[in-house]
Amino acid sequence: MNGFEDLRARLAALDERQLRRARRIVEGGWTPAARLADPGGVGRDALAFCSNDYLGLASHPAVVEALAAGARRFGAGSGASPLISGHNVAHHRLEARFAAIQSPHVPVARALHFCTGYLANLAVISALADRETEVFSEELNHASLIDGIRLAYARRRVYPHADVEALDAMLQASTARRRVIVTDAVFSMDGDLAPLPRLLALAERHDAWLVIDDAHGFGVLGADGRGSLAHFGLRSDRIVYMATLGKAMGVGGALVCAHEDVIEWLIQRARPYVFSTAAPPALAVAAEAAFDIALGAEGVALRTTLHAHIARLRAGFGASSADGAAGDASDPSAAGWRLLPSPTPIQPIVVGANDAALTLAAALLDRGIWVPAIRPPTVPEGTARLRVTLSAAHTVEQVDRLTEALQELVERPG
Ligand SMILES: Cc1ncc(COP(=O)(O)O)c(C=O)c1O
Which atom of ligand 1 has the smallest separation from the CA of 246? Predict the structure, then answer.
């Protein structure tokens, strides 16, 4: 079998298991009222419940204008990696601002800007861990955290979802020279929160770093949107905190905040930071504009709208806000679909089989509603789901349209 035959056989195996994925082509900028241009959906309007633009900042005029103004002032690109010449005053200012924002939670805080959250996670873990390190990784962690452990050549110990006792036992048994605990703060495919206060207590007791990926919490959680550390009221120099800028901030990129010694080590040794061109400075300018909105008075109003949408969708599904319990026979939960108990804008509906998830997503798209089916390996086998994500940019009528479409599909599937 030559290389092409081998690849084609592997693609065919994906087809057999209904795991082949395709990209949809979106026309225009991102809003919940999307328009699709791909061959399967040419010119089709789609009410979208599938972005992480939780506050609607991706198309906010002030953020868009800041990006344009940043490009006019600093040009299109940074020109080089940060240690050569690519570190711009716009990056530097954004880092200082982020360190100040997180400083109630991270003593002696300093911050570092990255092109993406994926790179930030690779950088943090591969710089903190090595072959003499055990990395204790939550079962449902994002792929970028898992890949960071691989890049570090560290020993990976996976602990069961939210199981602090199991983690404690693993840490007690550890004889490694260095220890790192790694967790999503908000689980990206389930929407629930990690027990961060208890994880931090373990990190302090066992002399471990606690790496927290707050991709889905920054801008959403905490009274003023500062994220998971503010939500739980945590403070420790053991915390290495990562927030992405491409989700609630609507832009792109990521920031890591930690004790200044940790950040200095990342600048010296994190390969994904050292060996990659710095992000365009204009993105840092746009991110600052997003901070102004998300962490100011407008952000408070946007989060109020967002949390009202979450409660409304869950009520329509027959779920109480926390437990996902079934309601009456016209509720979607009666079809065997399980709305996971999530308090965040990520509201996953588990349907089980891959083909059932694909069929449901297609039936919704026929009704003009776009919710992606998420299948293995992104989620465990047998837990294929629709990943509904809500945004402050949705209207109440749009949220109701989704609930009504789901109710209709319970009564008349397909
Ligand atoms: C939990 C989590 N961490 C990290 C990332 C990566 O961030 P980015 O998209 O900025 O690369 C994502 C999503 O993409 C995510 O969901």
Answer: 10
How far does Cα 36 stand from its chain's mean position? Answer: 23
Distance CA 368, CA 36 (A): 11
The answer to whether the CB of 246 is under 6 A from ligand 1 is yes
Q: What's the DSSP call for residue 193?
A: B
Task: Please say whether the beta carbons of 273 and 112 come within 8 A.
Answer: yes
Interstrand relation of 369-370 and 44-48 (parallel, antiparallel or unpaired): parallel
| Ligand 1 centroid to residue 245 C-alpha, Å | 9
251: helix, strand or coil = coil
Global model pTM greater than 0.70: yes
* Lookup: tokens for 305: 């709208």
Interatomic CA distance for residues 366 and 411, integer angstroms? 16
Reading the block at residue 272, the tokens are 């994904």
- Domain architecture of the chain: domains with CATH: 22-51+297-411 (3.90.1150.10), 61-294 (3.40.640.10)
- C-alpha 19 to ligand 1 mean position (Å): 21
Cα gap 345→311, rounded to integer Å: 10
Nearest Cα to Cα of residue 114 among 258, 315, 306, 292: 258
Dihedral sign of CA atoms 142, 144, 148, 150 in order: positive
**pLDDT (tens digit per residue) in 314-346:** 999 886 444 444 445 556 666 788 999 999 999
Pair 203, 194: CB distance under 8 Å: no
Question: Ligand 1 within 6 A of 116 CB?
Answer: yes
18 vs 182: which has the higher pLDDT:
182
Q: Which helix (H) or strand (E) holds 47?
A: strand 44-48
Both ends of the chain: CA-CA distance in Å? Answer: 41
- Nearest atom in ligand 1 to the alpha carbon of residue 144 is 4
CA atoms of 368 and 388, how far apart (whole Å):
14
CA 287 to ligand 1 centroid distance, Å: 16
Nearest CA to ligand 1 atom 10: 117
Region 128-137: what's the mean pLDDT? Answer: 98
Q: What is the distance of C-alpha 312 from the center of its chain?
A: 22
